[in-house]
Amino acid sequence: MSDDESTRPPAPTVRRVRAQDGPQWARLYAAYRAFYEMPEQPDVVATAWGWVLGEQHGMTGLVATAPDGTTLLGLANLRTFARPTTGTQGLYLDDLFTDPSARRSGAGGALLEAAAALAAQRGASVVRWITATGNATARAVYDKHATATPWVTYDMAPRA
């Protein structure tokens, strides 16, 4: 073992969310929303937590933990989606966030690898997500685990 390896902190562990994660998860999710300049909306955070914890709407919540197993370093919220063009299902990574104090700990990469393993376990054909083009920090991590696509995303407001 090299000196560098002996001084490196243990890698984060990834597991599914548990009920007792609620307060830490909510703090991380609120920080994620703030990063993307979304308004502070505790009711939205609470709704998302209910979906993730209850695995509603095909949602699965993963968290990266510190070696103590209880301190949350990051989160990933995934959901199943149908892929009619391939006749398969995929996993959509709605949200991925690592606490700024845990950046460069390997938490983000560990969450991505756990998402890939979950997709394989479920027989999914892809793990897909979007990010802001200017999010260079996240994109540097993503580029180590996945391939950027040429697709452009659009949003359309519902209208009667």
Automatic annotation (TrEMBL):
<dbReference type="GO" id="GO:0008080">
    <property type="term" value="F:N-acetyltransferase activity"/>
</dbReference>
<dbReference type="InterPro" id="IPR051016">
    <property type="entry name" value="Diverse_Substrate_AcTransf"/>
</dbReference>
<feature type="domain" description="N-acetyltransferase">
    <location>
        <begin position="12"/>
        <end position="160"/>
    </location>
</feature>
<dbReference type="InterPro" id="IPR000182">
    <property type="entry name" value="GNAT_dom"/>
</dbReference>
<dbReference type="InterPro" id="IPR016181">
    <property type="entry name" value="Acyl_CoA_acyltransferase"/>
</dbReference>
<keyword id="KW-0808">Transferase</keyword>
<keyword id="KW-0012">Acyltransferase</keyword>
<protein>
    <submittedName>
        <fullName>GCN5 family N-acetyltransferase</fullName>
    </submittedName>
</protein>
<dbReference type="Pfam" id="PF00583">
    <property type="entry name" value="Acetyltransf_1"/>
</dbReference>
